[in-house]
Amino acid sequence: MQSLTVHLHDFIRDVRLTEEEWNTAIEFLTRVGHITDDKRQEFVLLSDTLGASMQTIAVNNEAYKDATEATVFGPFFVDDAPEVELGGDISFGAKGQPAWIEGTVTDTDGRPVPNARIEVWECDEDGFYDVQYDDDRTMARAHLYTDEHGEYRFWGLTPVPYPIPHDGPVGKMLAATGRSPIRAAHLHFMVTAPEHRTLVTHIFVEGDPQLEIGDSVFGVKDSLIKRFDEQPADTPTPDGRDLGDETWAKARFDIVLAPADA
Ligand code: BEZ
Ligand code: FE
């Protein structure tokens, strides 16, 4: 509290805060509070768009050897997403280009981590997560477990850029400061395994123009940008699945978990 107060006072002196600006700030925070309920967390969105979430992640997930970097959690995780078998399809009918994602989970000494729990979630090709529809659908999210070699694979969707919820005060703040609400295309992962640090991260899509423009919550790390190689229609799929005349993409994400006490 002492540090917060010192920085707050420094800020007020630095910008010579006017009483009108003080009032505007109070009104803004009041609106952030009023729109927040058990479905919508505008304070977290404010923290995300101010880069405060990423800064907190940075101080709490210090780099450890070659462990995979963490990034923002976001508001769209759901606790009880269905399980899919290895090679299963997490889209459950959500619209988008099919993407085969595979990789390994290892520790920082290169040893496979069998039975690691991998949660994955993403938006559909229209830029919406299932929970943003009002029909209780469960799509484009699931959990699965690595096999005895620490390997995993599943069908998902090629991620697309989408806007964070921007119909509230945070959206107004972004507009007032000339910022875009768009997030770079990504696929969320949360990986848990006993004795390892839980990893909350995403993979981003190499070549996505939004990576140049910027991510509205500052979540991009170069190490998390992966190739989604587009395969022409009729290219045989890794599991023999027949996609008819659809194109599909292939991506690899090898995950390295830090030890729990790192
Ligand atoms: C997301 O990636 O799902 C997300 C992250 C931060 C704010 C809004 C959405
Ligand atoms: Fe997201």
From TrEMBL:
A GO term, aspect molecular function: ferric iron binding
Gene3D superfamilies given in the database record: Aromatic compound dioxygenase (2.60.130.10)
Cofactor: Fe(3+)
PROSITE patterns tied to this protein: INTRADIOL_DIOXYGENAS
GO biological process, one term: catechol-containing compound metabolic process
UniProt keyword terms in alphabetical order: Dioxygenase, Iron, Metal-binding, Oxidoreductase
Pfam family, one: Dioxygenase_N
Stretches of the chain forming a coiled coil according to its record: none
Domain named Intradiol ring-cleavage dioxygenases: residues: 101-129
Family: Belongs to the intradiol ring-cleavage dioxygenase family.
Protein name, per record: Intradiol ring-cleavage dioxygenases domain-containing protein
